[in-house]
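Troubleshooting entry. Yesterday's outputs looked truncated, so today I'm pasting the complete records for two proteins to confirm everything comes through intact. If either block looks cut off, that's the bug. Protein one:
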Amino acid sequence: MPKVGVVFNDAKPIAEQTAVTIEAWLQERGWDAVLTTGRGGLLGYASPDSISYTPIEDLVPPEFKQDITFVVSLGGDGTVLSTFRQVAPLGLPVLAINTGHMGFLTETYLSHWEDALDRMVQGSYIVEQRSMMRVRAYDGEEVFWEALALNEMVLHREPLTSMCHFEVSIGNHAPVDIAADGIIISTPTGSTAYALSAGGTVIEPGIPVFQLVPICPHSMASRALVFANSEKVVVTSADRHRLVMVLDGNAGCYIYPEYKLVLDRSIYPARFARLRPGEFFNVLREKLGWGLPHISKPTSVELP
């Protein structure tokens, strides 16, 4: 019997109710369903005195196996991020159904879930792969924390308004010192999230790059930098302040001066199930209002 995984946001009753309805719908059509919540991908914030280290592969729900054909994510963008953190190691395509507000990463709306699933079980979909970022925190040569990020890694000092110096090494290039309230390193998917608000550029999702964006830099010369995601990035504190590292807005840990962060492209991509060929500019227009036509355009005037 073919099988579908369903990851839902149990903080939203409508998402949980829809997950149960989808399970029954699938069973009527000869498909099995495995349900789990998105909590497994919400790593939380490690305290200064206690860090819970969960290897990336151990976040896969125990009941999710390679015999699953595809996964349905029910929630908003946060649930999509959590879902990929859980299922990316399995390489499963994810159909994201929006039960939230913005839904920038989702493929369809809750009112269309039945039509969308009908196409999925018929195999009438395509898969769009997007790169994810692996972030590892080291104490000396030992990894003590790691996770996947689909959007970004943010490193800042407490409180956020305090300036700090960050030393960043990209590949074999000479390290640079950035004086700022914080730094963001984002994937192309994350270029439309926090990085965009901090002054970064929008990057089309298929381009194999990362982006470095200083947060409120203390120099006119410190601006966003786009570089190949084949390059490994090492970040350390250039002064003696404890920092806070946050991934995708829902997971992180403290970074002390003797620690270092190492970021690289994950071997596990995010595989989005698309019901139609992706049109990134349409998403920008619909969700962010980018490139909308002017309400009024000047008319030509004949000069005497």
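Protein two, checking that the full record survives here as well:
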Amino acid sequence: MHLIIVSGMSGAGKSLVLHTLEDQGYYCIDNLPLELLDHALDTERVLKRKKIAIGIDVRSGEKYLQKLPDMVSNFKKEFNTDVLYLYAGKSVLIKRYDETRRKHPLSNSKTTLREAIIKEYDLLLPVREIADIQIDTSTSNIYELATNIKKRICDSEEQSFSLMFQSFGFKYGTPRDSDFLFDVRCLPNPYWIPELREYTGLDKEIKEWLASHESVTKMEYDLSTFINSWIPNIIESQRAYLTISIGCTGGHHRSVYLTEKLANFFRKTYKKSIIVQHREL
């Protein structure tokens, strides 16, 4: 049985994720109190299912959230278990609540929305620390998040290990869901060549220009060698997902080119479990 525990910040997209998983054949249980989790997984009706997703949120209370790591450790001995944690920036969450006019589960007459979000973040730290995969939904719309879930979980369900490569621009902020983050701003920048500026790292003109520089080729070799040498240790530690972020200044040229090169290199070994995302394109 594949068990996915979906948790994270209120307003970060847990409901959408559960709906997406349900569409992909998962038996979904939302807002299950943690004190009932063991019992729920013991029932005959649930155990007959091959794919189960359970939504857990802050309303379970600090006492049970602190117990979740031990519970998950026991589940992993019985089932193929993953913990998915969703989050977004504080200002993004505030904006989403303002737009929907929903009430945060921890806000009341004495607790403002901002205070409730900060409190929730602290209470969920035990969950975040054991998460197999973390997704920052700050810049994702509902369609992008659904697609990401399908690629990261559903499409690679039969794969033992999933590798995600993403490019980004430092000028727009660093992605917070990275396991490894590499800065390639030290490489030659085609942005300063007027006739190349409007192209991206997906275009032939940029590929040929970057490939002609020895430093770019060396960076590609060094990154692929480093990542490849540590993947066996990562897999051995029971990790099912790995996110690698490559950043340049604007996220259009160097980072895109190297992200594609690395994805193609590892695709030879991991085939369909390679995911590529270019945040700024």
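Both blocks look complete. Sanity check on protein two: Residues 260 and 276 are 7 Å apart (CA to CA).
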